[in-house]
## 1
Amino acid sequence: MPEVKQHKILLEESELPTRWYNVLHDLPTPPPPVLHPGTGQPVGPEDLAPLFPMALIEQEVSTAQYVDIPPEVLDVYRLWRPSPLFRAHRLEAALQTPARIYYKYEGVSPAGSHKPNTAVPQAYYNKQAGISKLTTETGAGQWGTSLAFACAQYDMECEIWQVRASYDQKPYRKMMIETFGGTVHPSPSDLTEAGRAILAADPDSTGSLGIAISEAVEVAAQDPTVNYALGSVLNHVLLHQTIIGEEALLQLAKVGETPDLLVGCTGGGSNFGGLMFPFLRERWAGRMDPVVRAVEPSACPSLTQGTYAYDFGDTAGMTPLMKMHTLGHDFVPDPIHSGGLRYHGMSPLISHLYETDEIEAVAKQQTECFAAGVLFARTEGIVPAPEPTHALAAAVEEAIRCRETGEDKVILTALCGHGHLDLPAYAAYLEGSVTDTSWDDSELQAAVAQALTRLPQLA
Amino acid sequence: MPEVKQHKILLEESELPTRWYNVLHDLPTPPPPVLHPGTGQPVGPEDLAPLFPMALIEQEVSTAQYVDIPPEVLDVYRLWRPSPLFRAHRLEAALQTPARIYYKYEGVSPAGSHKPNTAVPQAYYNKQAGISKLTTETGAGQWGTSLAFACAQYDMECEIWQVRASYDQKPYRKMMIETFGGTVHPSPSDLTEAGRAILAADPDSTGSLGIAISEAVEVAAQDPTVNYALGSVLNHVLLHQTIIGEEALLQLAKVGETPDLLVGCTGGGSNFGGLMFPFLRERWAGRMDPVVRAVEPSACPSLTQGTYAYDFGDTAGMTPLMKMHTLGHDFVPDPIHSGGLRYHGMSPLISHLYETDEIEAVAKQQTECFAAGVLFARTEGIVPAPEPTHALAAAVEEAIRCRETGEDKVILTALCGHGHLDLPAYAAYLEGSVTDTSWDDSELQAAVAQALTRLPQLA
């Protein structure tokens, strides 16, 4: 009779953490301020007020260690949270590794990823501030789905500009947004000045995240009852995601485990920060000492190949300037299947932690990641989104290293979403049509250097 | 501050039931035997041995009250089981009903439905019997996905014939099957005599479930190392699904609830039977007295409009004869979006329970079901598969009735899967292009009567 193995470590709803953790309180050194692009001076609340409610602006700059989660947000979180932590017994067996691999799974959420963790409180605080509608951009559609669901919880409208190329090629996400009650426009649209200007110049434009942001911001800025919401990069977004790491700490404690290595994928940084920040707090307090490793795609390697400099958050250059690891705000990455990782910059908080050697980073080619994703699906029964296959590939790499050294390391992986709506990417991989980045480092460095010459000279 | 509401009732893995419940042991009257179409005599194990391993044949006819679940099956079950039971607080609030609505959610499984509950033990028992490959048919693809995953757990091959129309129109399911390591052919194929005969007559055939069964059975029958697997209808399939009801009983007991009404959708009957059979045992033992209601689509109403007669399980007339509620084995239902409910007959066990007044049945039009599905998605955060929206529509109907009468009934609903790969059906509903069945009862009755004239005269 085989040994009885526990696959899932669950928390009761009564064990759901009731506070978010603010890493700003405990950073060994403070991060550089966000600057106004016109004045070069730190931005104040009044600069952000046209787009965001004051509660979120306060969270963006707060240095309090914890922020209480409103009961009305906790009630929605409990639809799927606490999310499960899994021990990957069957993956370990397939790898014949002495390592113990755990994964924190966010795919149980309404959108199928970690994004609702911040969409729900953002909608809630806007509703409290009297806002009746939120606008946003979305690329592949995870963030748009999450915000549409969140708005439905508080009887708000949600209007979304989706990059035309994704709108046409990935219709399932649009359908899910509409099922949750959101409205989706392909971007560029004729509904905004920004969109009309683009269409006048190029009627066949397939759009970009930068154009979609411009359209969503334009609509929000014109109406005091409408605000804009962002799904990653900003401090308050990463704050909301720390519910992931707080739960994982409780779950590992239940089975008496302390992680030796944490791995997560990084696009804008919110999934990674959400899992890692509470563990960094534990490390700074001397209670554990895990290696914390970000995994980014070789096609868009902002941490490992980018420059640490002040840059815009959007392609069009409308946002405040943030000091971050960037490939240049007009850098266009090779098309890869992990749409959520195709961002030119990195969250200022994650960038600061990398710059100060609190975390490390590696880049992975996508065929290695899909291979790990297929192995994971066949052993653990979950088809992962392409984004977290980057984390899985790094976990598999470490587990194989452990097989060679005999180390029984504890590896904690951020599995930030399922891949049910990304199956065409798996089909492409299985038929051999997924390719790796062909550029060499010098070519990439030249492209980045050129992009950076177009930055304001503030850094 | 709002009241803290518990949304999920969870079980630890240590609470996972270790036995399946066999309703045959407790039936007030025994069901009619399965007959050999050639002799008209009850079939014996030797008739089934070319396709199924002896362990499953024994389960098909066993009258033991319980069957122990093998530890190797429990280890795979624990990847997702016990599955959660939810209290639908937010749906109740939207309906302003005093009813308490619970739903048992099987969408957390690798395939996203209840089907792996039987795919895993079927693969296991075949592997134990020395079988190295399983064949099957699949329509929309849920069953094929489940069997591909199950075969991957025991290092077996899985070869699937998918109805050509679904193969072409619903490519995501094929992609998921291949991600789990299965092989998919469109049916009719040129790989079998049955397929070649169809293609010779009609090169553009879009196939049918009956043709796909013929192809899968032909390949399995020719090779002693290859067997065939079926995903619904048969006694051993429903036996395996009783894990759902056993868990739900434990979960309701945790919150001190006894159901007044159980509702589940019925196609072949395995999801419905899986949840209901353990509750029928409790009723027969005098421990509760719930109403048990099957919900079928108006486009394929085998229980409410069909005849109780001996009929073939497949369209081509290759299977043994089963006494069941049937619309005639060559009845072709209107196209509806709930592919899993488009079956001409009903499991003999469910049919027998209906005939003996142990359960009741209603038929629902699909627009009412999609309306319930959209309401459910926006309140509970889960996009249901089209099939269980039939159960949700019946639950909503009862909850509204309770609002009018003031009754605080406890309603338990079988939510047998998510609709992530069915989003085009929601898009069609939201744009108004989903239509209800237009035939009147007399037209349907005439079609059924005609189909039944082609049956063997055994009943």
Note: Chain A touches chain B through 53 residues (CB under 8 Å).
## 2
Amino acid sequence: FSTTSGETVCATLFPGDGIGPEIAESVKQVFNVAGVPIEWEEHYVGTEVDPRTESFLTWESLESVRRNKVGLKGPMATPIGKGHRSLNLTLRKELGLYANVRPCNSLPGYKTRYDDVNLVTIRENTEGEYSGLEHQVVRGVVESLKIITRQASLRVAEYAFHYAKTNGRERVSAIHKANIMRKTDGLFLKCCREVAEKYPEIAYEEVIIDNCCMTLVKNPSLFDVLVMPNLYGDIISDLCAGLIGGLGLTPSCNIGEGGICLAEAVHGSAPDIAGKNLANPTALLLSAVMMLRHLQFNNQADRIHNAILQTISEGKFRTADLGGKASTSDFTKAVCDHI
Amino acid sequence: FSTTSGETVCATLFPGDGIGPEIAESVKQVFNVAGVPIEWEEHYVGTEVDPRTESFLTWESLESVRRNKVGLKGPMATPIGKGHRSLNLTLRKELGLYANVRPCNSLPGYKTRYDDVNLVTIRENTEGEYSGLEHQVVRGVVESLKIITRQASLRVAEYAFHYAKTNGRERVSAIHKANIMRKTDGLFLKCCREVAEKYPEIAYEEVIIDNCCMTLVKNPSLFDVLVMPNLYGDIISDLCAGLIGGLGLTPSCNIGEGGICLAEAVHGSAPDIAGKNLANPTALLLSAVMMLRHLQFNNQADRIHNAILQTISEGKFRTADLGGKASTSDFTKAVCDHI
Ligand SMILES: CC(C)[C@H](C(=O)O)[C@@H](O)C(=O)O
Ligand SMILES: CC(C)[C@H](C(=O)O)[C@@H](O)C(=O)O
């Protein structure tokens, strides 16, 4: 992705459900103050079914991301009722979002049991245990299929090594359970090894998932970039978020086919506090910063990032989830003031 | 299981590979000093293939556990070469070891980032992602089958609630990913709910695995008894072990068909330090204590347990894995002195 300086970029915005609109508002304000040359194309993603996609996501919303190749999404609740796929899964599928990237860094000034987390999880986002293929064999016996393909594994491995190289990272750890799932996780590892050979400057190791989780809680600083199949990524990325304080503080972005980058707050839509000006916009703001870096708006990204870190570190304007009393707008204003 | 007081009980002992014999020796010494009325039936489980089981485990070894219904096993390495199932898996299968139980408690005196861990993981140990059913669909596309059955799910759920009730625990959390694997994990949850209804005095909740791992690293004291399918159990039990210092400090026991109880140290065989009198026998000792409680030798169990905790807490005789300089025999002697 490249932009000529001075140009305005069009980006898709899905505020999402629940607290989504409030925290999206926070991003818009902060971007304004920082003078980010982005024009938002905002789409409502909600509870009306679009007959063309048979989902709660309109065709226009998807086209907007495909056209802009860059976007930001808030939390989306799963529509109620049987048989509905979650909107998150639908988006991953429709936009071919093959890698979910989550940098996880201890926030200076926000104390948890860990102050030494500085890693990135890269999750394969399209297959594995999420195939949706399940059936009952006989009464009382059900099975699910986990699918691993060479194509998707190579693609996410390639992304992980490329990310490591272009982000000054030194090591990629492939997480697996190939001692048990020899064929599926075995293929995943084989693909990682193939890609590793093309990046001799990046160290490569393989870590069994149970051991990985134990090591993460004992000594997370042993890890740098982690790449893994879908379900392990789901588990480990949330575990890592927990190390630094939770999903409310963890940014994420999804890399999709054709160079799409859809940044995303991975926390829930928190319907209980929606509309009350109580939500913490940090995860969405940090995700928006990831989007800016993808666009190579590094100057604005740095300024906004630092302003967020300073606001959290000072601790005067913490939202309730972090034990404070600030409102969403108090926090947003503090970030804007720091820019 | 019940024993008349004064009676001697016969128990199987598999010292295992690597450091196994040394730490098993430690258990024997400690049991002697505590006057535990157990006679060990020791079996070599090693690298010779028994043609009757086609495994590295002899028929006599299995028969010994089946007859005694109680045993203790050290670490076992997986035989090298393609196609060999790990000895651990073979044991689970042959003995129908359907539940792996791991109490996880912060050790007073051994400092980690957590001092508030007091939970028990109960893992379904026979099916799920460990079916071994995998194949290549076409070149570059492989699949694994996860199998969940009503029978195995009910059995482990029943065990978990029974355990909670008889061990003064208040809540059982079923861990799952039924929002994605609706049929397999859905069946697991259905079985847990059925059993929960029979135990109105035990609270019951369902927690999605990613959320569970995040909560565990933020606030493990929110959990009491956790029950889950095989792979989630593998992951979460190791994560929990990490919270209190690692597998070298975590006891475990397996409950099998016909009332078998096979206690087990779940750490590796550490071939690098084998035979050097450097290994930490704590996990095997604590596992042996679980075996004693199963036999209702509660007096001896308490005395040994306290002696282990005191030795660790004093910190004078720590083995290298805990940052100390004590040998296996130094540590063992200290435990014996405390009895
Ligand atoms: C909501 C759920 C379907 C989703 C997942 O399992 O991928 C979530 O946990 C995530 O990580 O985005
Ligand atoms: C060694 C391996 C096959 C085993 C498992 O995955 O069950 C181990 O991790 C365990 O937890 O006992």
Note: Chain B touches chain A through 55 residues (CB under 8 Å).
